Amino acid sequence: MLEGLKWRNIEGKRLIIAIACDKNKNILMTAFMDEEALRKTLETGYMHYYSTSRKKLWKKGEESGNYQKVLEIYKDCDGDCLLFIVDQKGVACHEGYYSCFHYKLKNGKWVVDEIYKDDHS
Amino acid sequence: MLEGLKWRNIEGKRLIIAIACDKNKNILMTAFMDEEALRKTLETGYMHYYSTSRKKLWKKGEESGNYQKVLEIYKDCDGDCLLFIVDQKGVACHEGYYSCFHYKLKNGKWVVDEIYKDDHS
Q: Any residues with CB less than 8 A from the CB of B78 and at least 6 apart, and which?
């Protein structure tokens, strides 16, 4: 589909890593895309992922309503990771936090400490 | 080693995704860690990765001098991705750019357009 991508063998599937950020540089989540998920994302303008646990295409927000509208797309130098700048509706994390990255390592333990918050700016 | 991590089968190895950001939220790079790379990172305070192409442990900066000193560590909700806030010496990308994410999708083509720059703030 797109040139310059390096699909990786992840859990036995041909996938690429996808990072979603908001336009204020807050990282919302990382997940995976197969070719179908990437194609759907490009076609619709909304983030689609491949769920390695459910083994199927997954439109972000299809259950929660927390859709991610694509604004810009970047890739890294070796092409195995895509970065999507998105407009996040609601929160990204199914645990109710704005970002999935809300566990910080303190004294060898993971404790809730949000590095990224919805700053609405 | 650390609880709550979800190691994935990536290219036939048991790996976790590692994102390195600077303290201004700029994403520098993504790569992989095996347990040894994570242990070395925790022990030394400097980023170590597992190279899937060279199939070996790799200390970031060992050839370029562009080391990454670890400041903070986060994980995401499902534990398959670690986020390291680092102090980046020099640039992160072997192509000479501050961040590895310097290709933007424009009209179906990847063109150099740096979303993250060293803002020294």
A: A100, B6
Cα(A32)–Cα(A52) distance, integer angstroms: 8
ipTM: 0.96
Please check whether residue A2 lies inside any domain of the structure.
no
> What pLDDT score was predicted for residue B2?
87
Q: What pLDDT band is residue A118 in, cutting at 50, 70 and 90? A: confident
The DSSP symbol for A101 reads -
| Separation between Cα atoms, residue B66 and residue A13, nearest integer Å | 33
Q: Is A100 annotated as a binding residue?
A: yes
Domains identified in chain B, total number = 1
Beta carbons of A72 and B102 less than 8 Å apart: no
Asked if residue A111 is part of any domain, the answer here is yes
Mean pLDDT by 10 residues, chain B (121 residues): 93 98 97 98 98 96 97 97 97 96 96 90 49
CATH assignment at residue B100: 3.10.20.810
Instruction: Give the residue among A61, A121, A119 at the shortest CA–CA distance from A93.
Output: A61
If one compares A119 and A79, the residue with the highest pLDDT of the two is A79
CA separation for the pair B53, B91 (Å, rounded)? 21
Interface check for B30 against chain A (CB to CB < 8 A): the answer is yes
Model pLDDT, residue B120: 65
Could you list the residue range(s) of the whole structural domain that residue A38 is in?
Answer: 8-117
In a domain, A1, yes or no: no
CB–CB contact A9 B11 (8 Å):
yes
Q: Is residue B109 part of a domain?
A: yes
